[in-house]
Each structure stands twice: as C-alpha cells, then as structure tokens.
Write a structure and sequence with these properties.
With 125 residues, the protein is mostly helical. It has one domain. It is built from 6 helices and no strands. Helix 1 packs antiparallel against helix 2, helix 2 packs across helix 3 and helix 2 packs across helix 6.
Length: 125
C-alpha cells in the first residue's frame, strides 16, 4: 500500500508552487477563490497518490470527502471555536470562510482528475 511515486510527487510540488503563487500574488474574484479550490483538491490527490498505492476512484473519493469535511468545518467556524483566529497557518489550512460554491469547485477538481487519469490509462493500453 505504501510506495513512492515520483511523477505524482512532482505534480504535487508543481501544484503547491502554483497555489503559493496564487495565494501570494493573485487577489481577484475568480482565480484565487475558485481556481485555487479546483487546484487544491488536485494537489491533495497527487500528494496522496505520491505515497499510497490506492485505486484512482478510491483516492479521488477520499480527497473529495476530506475537502468537503474541511469546508463543513469552515461552516461551523472551527478556527474561531478553537481560538485560532490569530494563527495564520490554522486559517490557511482549515480556512475561515465558508462558501457553498466551494463544494462545486472541489467536485470540478476531482472530475478533472478522473478525466485526466482515464485519458492517461487509455494511452497506456
């Protein structure tokens, strides 16, 4: 079950850099809030696949459930309830603003992953 996949790890690193650049330099109403959410589930998926030999659908569903869980915790203001409003890392990791549309962005990110993985599997045949 445990293994290291260099390709997924490289994609993880690339997506992480893109996310950091978006968070640092993009302050718009489309890319940062929505494209960033699409990319973050891709980043988490690639990270999971870097170290765990899971089926594509299993990894995708687990990542989507994780993203939905984090968004739900935002709905319940977990950062504030834990008294971590001043902790920048907690606000970044857990998030501090709930948006229903984020569920769509996360789902779109996973859908893109599934389509790309299916296309890559066809090329391997």
């Amino acid at each position: 079950m445990l293994h290291f996949n260099r390709d997924y790890f490289g994609l993880t690193a690339l997506l992480f850099v893109i996310e950091v650049l978006i968070a640092s330099f993009v302050h718009d109403k489309i890319v940062r809030p929505y494209i960033g959410d699409v990319l973050v589930v891709m980043l988490i998926y690639c990270f999971v696949k870097s170290f765990l030999n899971l089926k594509i659908i299993t990894a995708a569903v687990l990542v989507l459930l994780f993203a939905f869980s984090i968004e739900t915790l935002q709905y319940f203001n977990l950062v504030e309830k834990l008294g971590l409003e001043q902790n920048k890392i907690a606000r970044i990791v857990i998030g501090s603003s709930f948006e229903w549309v984020d569920f769509i962005a996360y789902s779109l990110g996973i859908l893109i992953i599934l389509v790309v993985e299916k296309q890559l599997a066809k090329k391997e045949l």
